[in-house]
Predict the 3D structure of the following.
Amino acid sequence: MNPLPERPLSFGRRLRFLLFPACCPLCGNVIPMQRLFCETCEEAISDKIFEDTYVLEKDNTVHAAALWKYDGQVRQTLLAYKFSGQIDFREAFGVALASLVKGVSTDSFDLVVSVPSDKKRVRQLGFDHAGELARQAAQRLSLPYRPVMIRTRKAVFQHTLTREDRMRNLKNVFAVNEDLTGMRVLLVDDIITTGASVCACAEALYRAGAAEVLAVAVAKTMREEFQ
Ligand SMILES: [Zn+2]
């Protein structure tokens, strides 16, 4: 693998990393501020934990892949990214997602989108966590990112639901506000649990005319019922 790009460092960022040292998202070890992963973990970033193809309505399919198990340090890092304002991890995740895409597909894509977050959640967090990952991955793949997906209604809290319940719960929750006729679309999320969100989003993308959908995520939960 080619060496990974380094992190761009503004004066403010240098100062911040002096106060709060940069950490490797996979093992938690302190790393030089311009690096995204430690040397050991960098060797393994394109080893994926999960790959599967989900069959949707009308014989459409969505191929899905995730990089790491949602466990241990990866779980800590994702929680810190999402809830503790540690958004510097987005660059490392974006680079890793771009490498995952190249590893699972030789197709070229036209557009990168993200699983839309609940508006209230985005307001609370101050940013769209999946959108930021999609934007970073798109940048590394030299593809456009557009937040074309919306939630049409609120889904029931679903961490404890089974896959079938989740599918029912998410039926028509997602919509696309752009014509995607003939487009190959890359769908990005932070975590794949049962795959129900990915499937519901892919259904909406196909309804908008997409020709193909590939879904990638940073992590996959290994126990279906929990996230
Ligand atoms: Zn590491």
